[in-house]
Each structure stands twice: as C-alpha cells, then as structure tokens.
Design brief:
Layout (H helix, E strand, L loop, with lengths): L1 H13 L2 H57 L2 E18 L2 E4 L5 E4 L7 E4 L1 E4 L2 E20 L4 E12 L6 H4 L25 E10 L6 E7 L8 H4 L20 E7 L10 E10 L13 E12 L3 E11 L18 E17 L2 E16 L4 E2 L18 E4 L2 E3 L2 E2 L7 E13 L4 E10 L22 E11 L10 E13 L31 E14 L1
Parallel strand pairs: 4-17
Antiparallel strand pairs: 1-6, 1-24, 2-5, 3-4, 6-7, 7-8, 8-9, 9-10, 10-11, 11-12, 12-13, 13-14, 14-15, 15-20, 16-18, 18-19, 20-21, 21-22, 22-23, 23-24
Length: about 550
C-alpha cells in the first residue's frame, strides 16, 4: 500500500505545473476515493478471512461431532423390512370320514358279544374350498449390537397380520395341515396373528474364542428361511447360523458350537453342532410320564463361495411330542418316539449367462422314524355307561383309533420317507427382472419340521406329493440409501397335488387320498384331506 502511494506521488510531481494547477482538486478527490475504496476492500478481506475461519471451525466441530456419533453408534446396526401380500386360494377336498365328537357312526362289528361299537366319524362328501382374496401386512425390525470385540447380539422383531382381522382365524380355523392349525412355539411370528411386534429371534454369539476359529451361540435361533428357500424370497442366504430349508423351517430355542478352519482346498469350510428344545414338559411329579422334546444336529458345509455352496445336515428329534401344543389339539399327551433326518443341499451361481446370471439349486433328504408304544388318543376306550365301574353285556362303546408315530393302533413300524427339491432363477441384469421355477416331491412317509414356512396352505416342502411353483420378481431401480435398501414386486403361483394324508404331520399311518371314501371309519381323518390346491400371490417388499 505504501509503495502504491509513493509511485502515485512521484507521478504527480512529474506532471507539468499547469496540469497540476488545473486538476489539483480533481486529483485530490480521486486520491480520497481510491483511499476509501482500498479501506473498504481491506475491511471486506478481513471479514472474509474471519468468515473463513469461522466456517473452518464449524466444519472441524461438525467433523468432530460426526466422529463422536460414529464412534458412539458404530456398535449398533438397525435395519428391517416391510411386506404387503395378496393371496387368492382355491382347493379341492376328497370325500372322506371326518373325526367328529358330536357324531357316532355305527354300529361296527365287535369281537365282544352283546356290545355295540361306534366311532366318532362323519361321512363327508368332496367339496371345493377357497378364499378369493386375503391381504397381509408384515413388518420386521432387525437389530445387531456389538457388545465387545468378539461378542454380538442379533435380534429380529416381527408383526404379521391379516387385513381386517386381529387374530389367526382366517388362516388357522379352516386348517388343512397340522402345522397351520394354530399358533405355537415353532411357528409364532410366521403365521399371521395380530398387530403385536414379537421376537422372531434373539441370540448372542461369541466368536474367535481364545483366538481360535470357533464360536458359540445361544438364544432364540434364526432357524427359518434357510437355503435354498431364500432364493425365491429374493434374500441373501443366512450365514453360518442358518439351517437347510428342506429339513427345518422351525422357530426354536437352542445353542450352537461351530468351527471354521482355513482349509485351502475347501474355501469357506465350517461345521457346527446344534442343540434345541422343541417342547418343555414342565414340572414333575405331575407329569412323570412326559419328557422334554429335544433336538441335536450336525451341520457341515465343506464348500461355501458365491459360486458354489454345499451343505450336509443330520439331526434327531428325541422324545417327539405327540402333538403340537395348540388349543385345538389340547395338551401334549405323550412322547411317541424319535425322528432322524439326513439332507444335502447344493446351490450354484452361473454368471453372465446370456442377459444375466443363473441360480441353480438341488436338495434331497431322508426321514426315519423310531416309534415307541405311546400314541395320541382321540376319545377312545370302553365307556362305563351304567356308572357302576363294570363293562356289562349290552354296554355301548365309543371307538376311535390311537395314532402313533406314523402308525395306527397297534401296528407299530419304523418308516423311511424321502424328499427332493430343485429349482432355478434367472436374473436379467439390465431390467432387474428375476424369473424362477421350483418343484418338490415328498414320499408317503416323509416328515419335515417346517411349521414356520412362508406358504399359506401348508409348508410345500413337507407335502406328501408334488408341488410346482413359478414366480417373477421385478426390482424397483431406485438408488438405495439404506445399507440394505431394496424394493421389489413378486408375482407367483403354487400348485399342490397331495397324494397321501397327513402332510407336515407325524401322527398316524398316511392314507392314499384317492382311496378315501365315506364308508370306512377305519380311515377317519382329523384334517380335511386336500387333493389339490392353488395359490396365486403378489407381494410388495421393501428392505432397509
């Protein structure tokens, strides 16, 4: 600034005197104007510098605050999902004898002279059943909390209900399968009920125990929606906590001990031993004859990559409960034996096949029963009609069979069932469209533990017969803001063709549905025997 004034004064001195005399006033005025403008510029520069410093201070404070918040909440992750669902259901029931405590069907031949035998059975002609439209809301909230460096807790809360209803009656009152006949521990949060947000799973996992590749996990298990059922749900497979869907889709409490060593030629290898409780028998000595129902399983995954996943499973249910603890069934009456399951599941991803990627899967399983002499008894036995404690000649008798583990009456036998499940989904990358087809088959004696399945008629993977399904998924091409942000529509169709009674159940000898009639009370059924069923469904899913 001083240099500028010096140059200006020197220039003025060099001007002719006449010029100086003539423009002295003007020049002084210009000098004053320039001085004033320079002062203004200087003030503005100071203000800008102050504003810049203040802005830098605010940014630093914000960065520090963001850092503090990030550090404070880095241990916590929250996500979830919402689903709207519409189903149109239609099925056909074969003619049969229906168990009915209000109706005596008889008399029947009796080996005892002078005694008439009757059954609680009612002849029922074939009929069609349907629900043209039923709507559902489901909301899930997922929480993941890291308590320490190696211990974390995961939980999921779920609300699931029918539009226009605050209980499960539209789904469970006209039941056609035992696992859909009411709400119990194995299907809670997975059968529509009411507006209550319930715990689906909640468990703690301790990893890297003693700096070894082992973990221990305990709590309400994430034992539903396992591979490969996640493919049609458009979800990622559950991690090491999951179980294969063909064998188990059952919400239960338990614990797991696992190991995941680094084996070069077996990428992703892990194995685990699982224990769970399916039913607690309560206090003794009030129920000395009733035992807890427990399950032990071994799961081995020798190969786990994005391109290929191989999973092996064995599990046994000990002291299987005679019936689900549902009001419609009454109290659990007895333990009826043990059940083994063996299974293998393989999934594969083939990338860049034409316009997109191809997902393939195949699963197969075996179930084996080990029955004891205990049975679930419908009203049965000699009735003391005269009230004198004696069974006199001429006394009327009511009769219905006792149901054991896949056998009727006293015809106790071990049985082996088989099932397989195959499917494919083709993902078109450019449009976000996914097209899938699935097929599964279950034999006469097949038993699955799948009451928590997403299917409305009955778990399709527990069907003794054939189920076909096709669906189309269309993802919405919005920019995701949430970590798991995604939205899509899914339109699908299921067709069930039942061949034997008792799908998804373990009580009584399965009967061939085509051979049922309205004259043989020895084939009395507890459930209306669907011979075929259809389900057209549409969902709108949002995950976050």
């Amino acid at each position: 600034m001083r240099r500028f004034f010096a140059v200006l004064v020197a220039a003025l001195l060099l001007l002719p005197a006449s010029s100086f005399a003539l423009s002295q006033e003007e020049l002084l005025q210009k000098i004053e104007d320039l001085t004033r403008q320079l002062e203004q510029l200087k003030q503005q520069m100071n203000e800008m510098q102050m504003e810049q410093k203040m802005q830098e201070s605010r940014v630093e404070a914000m960065e520090e605050s963001t850092k503090e918040v990030s550090e404070k909440f880095s241990w916590l992750e929250i996500g979830g999902d919402y689903r709207f669902r519409l189903d149109s259901l239609k099925g056909s029931v074969h003619e049969y004898m229906q168990y009915d405590t209000s109706t005596n069907y008889g008399p029947l031949p009796s080996p005892y002279p002078g005694i008439n035998m009757y059954t609680y059975s009612r002849a029922t002609d074939s009929y069609d059943t349907k629900n043209d439209s039923v709507y559902f809301n489901r909301f899930g909230l997922n929480i993941k909390a890291r308590a320490t460096e190696n211990i974390q807790v995961k939980a999921r809360l779920v609300m699931y209900k029918v539009w226009g209803h605050n209980d499960s009656d539209p789904i469970t009152s006209q039941y056609y399968s035992p696992e859909k006949s009411g709400i119990f521990d194995g299907n809670v949060s997975h059968v529509p009920q009411d507006n209550v947000l319930r715990v689906d799973y909640a468990y703690a996992t301790w990893s890297n125990i003693f700096d070894l590749p082992v973990w221990f996990s305990v709590g309400r298990r994430p034992s539903t929606g396992g591979i490969p059922t996640n493919i049609r749900q458009n979800k990622e497979k559950i991690g090491t906590a999951g179980v294969p869907g063909l064998l188990i889709d059952y919400a239960f409490d338990g614990m797991t001990f696992g190991i995941a060593p680094d084996i070069e030629f077996l990428p992703g290898f892990y194995a685990k031993i699982c224990y769970g409780r399916g039913f607690d028998s309560g206090f003794r000595p009030g129920n000395n004859s009733l035992k807890d129902t427990d399950m032990i399983g071994v799961n081995v995954v020798p190969y786990d990559t994005d391109m290929l996943h191989v999973e092996l499973q064995w599990n046994r249910a000990f002291n299987m409960m005679s019936n689900p603890p549902i009001d419609a069934w009454g109290d659990v009456q007895a333990n009826i034996g043990d059940i083994d399951q063996y299974g293998i599941t393989v999934t594969s991803l083939l990338e860049n096949v034409g316009l997109g990627d191809l997902n393939l899967f195949a699963a197969a399983a075996i179930s084996k029963t080990h029955p004891n002499d205990n049975t679930y008894s419908l009203p049965f036995g000699w009735m003391d009609m005269n009230g004198n404690g004696q069974y006199d000649s001429g006394t009327d008798v009511t009769f219905n069979g006792n149901y054991g583990l896949l056998y009727d009456g006293s015809d106790k036998k071990k049985h082996t069932g088989t099932a397989f499940y195959v499917g494919a989904r083709y993902d078109i990358k450019s449009t976000g469209t996914k097209i899938g087809v699935e097929y599964n088959h279950g034999s006469k004696y097949w038993i699955a533990f799948a009451p928590a399945s997403d299917d409305l008629w009955a778990s399709k993977l527990g069907t003794r017969g054939d189920v076909y399904e096709a669906y189309v998924i269309q993802e919405i091409p919005d920019l995701p803001l949430a970590k798991n942000g995604k939205a899509f529509f899914r339109l699908g169709y299921q067709y069930y063709k039942f061949k034997y009674t008792g799908s998804n159940g373990w009580l009584g000898e399965p009967k061939k549905i085509s051979e049922l009639d309205t004259t043989d009370p020895n084939k009395t059924q507890m459930y209306p025997p669907l011979k075929n069923a259809h389900d057209i469904y549409l969902t709108f899913d949002v995950t976050f």
